[in-house]
Every structure is written in C-alpha cells, then in structure tokens.
Amino acid sequence: MKAAALRFLYGEMKMAQYVTLTHTFGPLFDAHSRILILGSFPSVKSREANFFYGHPQNRFWKVIADVTGRPVPATIDEKKALLHGSHIALWDTIRQCDIIGSSDSSIRNVIPNDLSVILDSAPIRRIYCNGAASANLFHKYQEKTLGRTAVRLPSTSPANAAFTLDRLVREWSVIRQDLLISPDSCGHIPSHSDTSPDIPSHFPSQV
Fold it and tell me: Between 2.60.40.4070, 3.40.470.10, 3.40.50.10260, 3.30.2380.10, what CATH number should domain 27-93+113-179 receive?
C-alpha cells in the first residue's frame, strides 16, 4: 500500500469510535440533470465543509473537471456550477448510519436515502456509484425499490491508491455518453436555463 493511503488510513484509525450520524446536507440536482453520481456517506472533511467530497486529497472534482473539459473548481459555488453546468446530480446512498471516522468498511445500521426525490424530478439516464461501498449499498437498499441498476466506477478516495488520476479519468470517461459529450468536444455541453425542483424541507438546498 502506498504511503499516501497509509497516512489516510492512519488518520482514520485515530478516530476509531462509532458514532451515529445523519446526513446534514441535501442532494444537488436540477430539472436538467442527466446522470446521478452516488457516494456512500460524507467523510469527516465533507461533514466539516457541509458539502460533497471535502477531503483535499479526494480526486472527485479533478476527475469530473477533466472528463467534462472544465476548470477544476475551488469553492463550493464553483463546484455547484460545474455539476449544474454538466447536468450531473450528486448525492449519497446513506441518510443515516453508524460509522467510524470516514471508514466505509465500518458502516453499519444503515438507513438509506430516498433517491426518488431526484429520479422523479430529473431525466436521469443512468446512475453511477463512486466506489464499491456505494455500489454495494445501492444494490442492497435501493436497487429493488427503484427498479434501477447502477454502474460502479472506481473510487476517487485517496485510499484507492492503486488508481492514478489519469487512470481514474479514463475509467470515469464513460459518463460522457450520458452527458452527450464526445471526446473531441469536452466542455461543450448542450445548455438549458437551469430551474431547480423543490427539495424536501428536511434537507438544506444545494442548488
């Protein structure tokens, strides 16, 4: 295992105590979202930032920027603009669980999110899961209820040290087919006037 992954896991081990947590921020989507990307549950850093993929070593934002041909976002507003502009919806499979730090492998006592909030409001062509944990949770808790399957993509987490950024970009480029992006026209996505559907009141708006 590479040094970066070992340092990441060591940091998680220092917080080796189960806590029961509820997702504190809502999904990001609008009426023109074409794909839904699901994580498992927010990491410690994401919970601190109150937004998706807040760990500075997580490659998610770099991957999405590269695949869509857009600049890497730095602020939360820029991250929202990147997703809305690319017609990508983003959420997590879990609403509540017991977890140690950011460790997906420690997750237990799961209460899943109701993904129909998004699927009933946007023309989602395909669901993608960021990593094995998200894919396994979706299969266990949501696939049968929704009547939808999901495509598993390699995790962008720093713990997935076997995948370089370039390799992640190659694997994640499959989402272009649903965003109507050709390899030669990255960044040129058919645009719409963005209108966001209502989000249930128990979630803060992420529009």
Answer: 3.40.470.10
